Amino acid sequence: MKNFDLSVYLVTDTDMCPRENLLDVCEKAVLGGATLIQLREKNISSRLFYEEAVALKQLCSKLNVPLLINDRLDIALASGADGVHIGQSDLPIEAVRGLLGNDRIIGVSAGCVKEAVNAEKRGADYLGVGAVFPTSTKDDAENVGIDMLRKVRSAVKIPIVGIGGINTENIEKLKGTGIDGVAVVSCIMASDDPKAAAAELKEKVEKL
After folding, report:
1. Per the residue annotation, which of 28, 138, 153, 204 is the catalytic one?
2. Domains of the chain
3. Catalytic status, residue 186
4. pTM of whole model > 0.90?
5. Cα–Cα distance between 116 and 110 in angstroms, integer?
6. Tens-digit pLDDT profile for residues 102-145
7. Which position among 8, 29, 42, 155 has the lowest Cβ density within 10 Å, counted as fewest Cβ atoms?
């Protein structure tokens, strides 16, 4: 599955919504306009992560959107997810591709042009570039700013998404950067109405 739309890229965070509501929030977000979901879990057992991934994969297949797993290649393989998103300190892209095969998606986090060009050269399908704005969802995220999005865009041909602190209030500042979408956490996961939040974001992304 290599045909994917990054325009409204939802990254999950069960610190922001009770875990038992995760599937419901994701479903509402997709119905509102989310085009891809990345399951991110930091503090649960592998067993629970796997079970959550399997349940979410079933939902995503029904809704016809890709499911990516953050960092954990083993969970991605075991759950039949559509791909994985890895950081600079995770397994090398070639090793991930060797295990995942050519049909599944590999996304890579990049904070500068050098990392972006290197990831493209090594076979990444898309890049997550950030943090664009200050963010509370990732303690170690360095704020790279909007200018870096433009620099990365002109340096690589593969799709890129901006990530980090993006919401419906500040998204318009990304106009003219040439990005393919935005990855968001809190503006959907912490929303009282995930469907409406995703719909508003989708509308604003289309105007970019």
Report:
1. 138
2. 8-207 (3.20.20.70)
3. no
4. yes
5. 5
6. 999 999 999 999 999 999 999 999 999 999 998 776 666 678 88
7. 42
